[in-house]
Amino acid sequence: MIRRVLIVVVGCCMFISVNAQTRHHSAEVENANGELSDLALNPLIEVSSDDLQDQSEDEWVVVFDDPRPARLQDWLASGYSKNGGGYRASLELKRFSKKQANRYNLDLRDQWFIESLSVYCLVVRFNGDAKQTVAALKSNKRVQWVQRSNEFRLLSSAKDTQRNELDRRSPNTSELNANVSADGAGVIVAIIDSAVDGSHRDFAGARNKSVDFVSGIRGVSDTSGESHGTAIAGVMISQAGTELGVVGVSPAITLESYRGCWEHADSNLTRCNTLSLARALDAVAKSGADILNLSLSGPQDELLDRLIERIVRRGAIVVAAFDPQRSMRTRFPTPRDGVLIVRAQGLDDRYSDVFTAPGERVVAKPGNQYDYMHGHSVASAYTSGVLALRKQAWGEKQQARHHDWRNLANASAADELLDELTNGT
Cα 386 vs. chain centroid, distance in angstroms? Predict the structure, then answer.
């Protein structure tokens, strides 16, 4: 059987696969020009247990302490200048990876350094007995932990909708109270999802930057935009004066789009894994984002939860879509201070204790098209936009306090804010 295992060593992570049949290649962190480019994510709207496979069957992740000599640890692991320490640090990591693969009889699939946690991760396949290999790795004092590489597969609820139906559903203005003057200017919102079509006419003039963390994965191609990511971005940053008159909740924010998921061309499935999400979360942890929107869900994941903890500790709020298929105790991200789980109004109403927000919108679709979407992922993006408005308002009044701002991740406080902005109370 093909299995995936994740082993963590203090400062380093390794992915290992057993008898894997496919090869994953390192994903490029930036575009060909070394710059941020436009991307999007896929929301969690409805997830069927039949469509969701929690764990990859062939790969594991091994997490190590930083294996580089102390003299090289100040250099970024991604630095490749042949005249600088970054290049030497990179060579040290590659040598270390090869040594561990030989020592434990591993088929090395991928490797990357997570700078925000100072760990080095290997994605591997086991060539020997899985239990014995895991036990041997865990006995290594440099290994922090070993885990399976998890998979996160989401379904989009967007449907091809006739133009007359889109016109009927489209508002002429934002749903927000007309007296609200805030537009999100000065606030940075990050999203992790599938690729955003930054050339969509609704985004003309929007502040949208993106990074692709998945295009190097086998079977995943470069793309100018994917449906769900484009839709989620549009909920927040669609500009006024467009064809259907749909205005984003927070059109003046700076949107940082991290492609950590990808859509299958022959289905509406959106897929992410531990590696792709960890790379994106590491980038968010090092960014200045005030809010992180995760319109996705999946099984608990040690590596990803540690990255969420780092992001929250830095002062950001994490907004995540509700997942009716999972209990709050077994999902990613795990609920905690600074993490707000959002459910769409009118969906899964039996979960009355979960914070709710509007989850229906006409959304942007790649190729200057539009769709209608209803689901928890839309509600999550809507909430992220509303929080950006409050962050802006507090900043302009110079009244923003860290503990007050973070208190909005509390469901009751978020309820009051949403009521204020939608009803003018």
Answer: 19
The single-letter code of the amino acid at 208 is N
Of the candidates 380, 376, 389, 396, the residue with the CA atom closest to the CA atom of residue 420: 389
What are the tens digits of pLDDT across the range 199-239? 999 999 999 999 999 887 766 777 778 989 999 999 999 99
Taking the CA atoms of residue 350, residue 352, residue 355 and residue 360 in that order, the dihedral angle to the nearest 10 degrees is 40
Q: Who's near 100: CB < 8 A, 6+ residues apart?
A: 14, 62, 64, 106, 122
Instruction: Please tell me the predicted confidence (pLDDT) of residue 76.
Output: 57
Per the listing, tokens 């009051």 go with 416
Looking at the predicted structure, is the pLDDT value of residue 329 above 60? Answer: yes
Is it true that the peptide bond before 333 is cis, omega within 30 degrees of 0?
Answer: yes
The pTM of this model reads 0.80
> Which residue shows structure tokens 């290594």?
140
| 269 in Cβ contact with 154 (< 8 Å) | yes
Nearest to 322 by CA among 342, 340, 292, 338: 342
Q: For the chain, give every domain's residue range.
A: 3-24+54-150, 153-423
Could you give the C-alpha distances from 340 to 87, 293, 299, in angstroms and in order? 40, 10, 17
- Give the DSSP per-residue string, 202-238: GGTT-EEEEEESSTTSTT----S--HHHHHHHHHHHP
Helix-helix angle 85-104:130-138, to 10 degrees: 130
Q: Is the dihedral of CA 212, 214, 218, 223 positive or negative?
A: negative
Return the H-helix or E-strand segment holding 392.
Answer: helix 376-396
CA distance 266 to 28: 24
Indicate if the pLDDT at residue 75 is higher than 50: yes
Residue bearing tokens 């205005």: 247
The share of the chain scoring above pLDDT 70, in percent, equals 67
Beta-bridge partners for 322: none
Give the Cα separation of 126 and 123 in Å (integer): 10
pLDDT of residue 199: 93
How far apart are the C-alpha atoms of 407 and 421, rounded to whole Å?
17
3-class secondary-structure state, position 141 = coil
Mapped onto helix, strand or coil, the DSSP state of residue 270 is strand
* 3-class secondary structure, 254: strand
The type of residue at 341 is I
Note the CATH architecture for domain 153-423.
Answer: 3-Layer(aba) Sandwich (3.40)
110 secondary structure, DSSP code = E
Residue 322 tokens, joined: 């509700």
Nearest to 110 by CA among 89, 127, 125: 125
